[in-house]
Amino acid sequence: MDLAYVWFFIVGVLFVGYFVLDGFDFGVGMSLPFLGKDNVSRRQIINTIGPVWDLNETWVIVAGACLFAAFPEWYATLFSGFYLPLLIILIALILRGVSFEYRHQRDDPTWRKRFDLMIVWGSALPAFLWGVAVANIVQGVPIDADKEFTGTLLTLLNPYGLLGGVVTLLLFFTHGVYFVALKTDGDVREQARRLATKSGLLTLVAAAFFLAWTVLSAMGAQAPLLPLVVVAAVVAALMLITAILANARGREGWAFAAGAGTVMFAVLTLWLSLFPNVMPSSTDPAFHLTIENASSTDYTLSIMTWAAVIFLPLVLLYQGWTYWVFRKRVTRARIEEAELVAH
What we know:
The chain is mostly helical. The protein has one domain. Helices cover 78% and strands 1% of the residues. It has 14 helices and 2 strands; from the N terminus they run ααααααααααααββαα. The protein has helices at 3-30, 32-35, 39-47, 53-70, 72-81, 83-102, 109-139, 153-156, 159-183, 186-220, 226-248, 252-274, 298-325, 332-342; strands at 277-279, 289-290. A two-stranded antiparallel sheet has the order 1-2. The chain is globular. The termini are far apart. 45% of the residues are buried.
C-alpha cells in the first residue's frame, strides 16, 4: 500500500487518541458546575485529571505535526480556512492549563471561582469547536482550484457542523463524567453516576441523528469504504448504549471503557467516510484534496514511518505507565487532610 494511505490512517489514529484522552479531560472540566458543590469536591474532581491532562493534550500536538509533515497541502488549507475556530481552541486550552496551575495559589473563593470558570469554558469551547471543525472537513467546504478555502466563519456554522459540535460537546461531557465516577468516592461519585445517566440519554439522541446523517451522506457520495462506515457507526451506537447501561448498574470501569469506545468508533466513522479525500471541496469535485494530491513525497513519508515505528510504542508505554501509577481513586478524605495540612 502507498505510504500516503498508511499515513492517512496513522493521522486518524492520532486524532482518535486525542479525542478519547483529552475528551474526558474536557468532560471533567465541564462537570465542575454540576458536581463541584464545595471547594473540596471541586478539588476532588480536578485532581482526577491533574496528573494526566497535559500528557493527554500532547496528542493533538503530535497529530498536528504529523498532519503538517505527511499532508502539507491539507494542513495549509485546513489551518488557513479554519484559522479563527482553531485560534479559539488554542486560547481556550491555554486558559484551561493556566487555571489548573493557578486556582489553588490563593486562599480566596473569588479567585478560585474565576479560574474554575476558565476551566469550564476552556473545556466546553474546544469540545464544541472540534466537532464543528471535523464535521465540516467530512461534509466539505468551499475550496478553489488553488486549494484555498474561500468561505468564512459563517460557512462553518451550518446545520451538520453545528450538530457535530453539539454531539462532541455531549459525548465528551458524558465521557468525562464517567471518569469522575470511576476516580472519586462519596457524594461526587454518586452525583456523577446520576448525571451521566441523564447526559448519556441526551448524547444517545444527538449522536443517533448525527451518525445517521453521516452514513446517509456517505451513501449519497458512494464512499468507497461505505460498509466499514456503517459498521463503525453501528458499533459506536452499541458502545454508547453499553456505557449507559453499565453506568446504571454502577460499573464505572465498564462505562468509561465503553465511552472511550464510543468516541473511538464515532471518529472512525467520520474518518472512513472521508476516504479517499482528506478535505472535499463543495465548490467542485475536481478541487477535492485527496490522499494522493495532498501528501508529501515518499522519501518524507518513509522517514516518518521509521520514526513512528520506533517512538510511538515508547510513548504508549510511558502513557500507560502514568495511568497505572495514578490508578487509585481520589478520595474526599485525602483532599480534606491536605487542606488541614495547608492551613
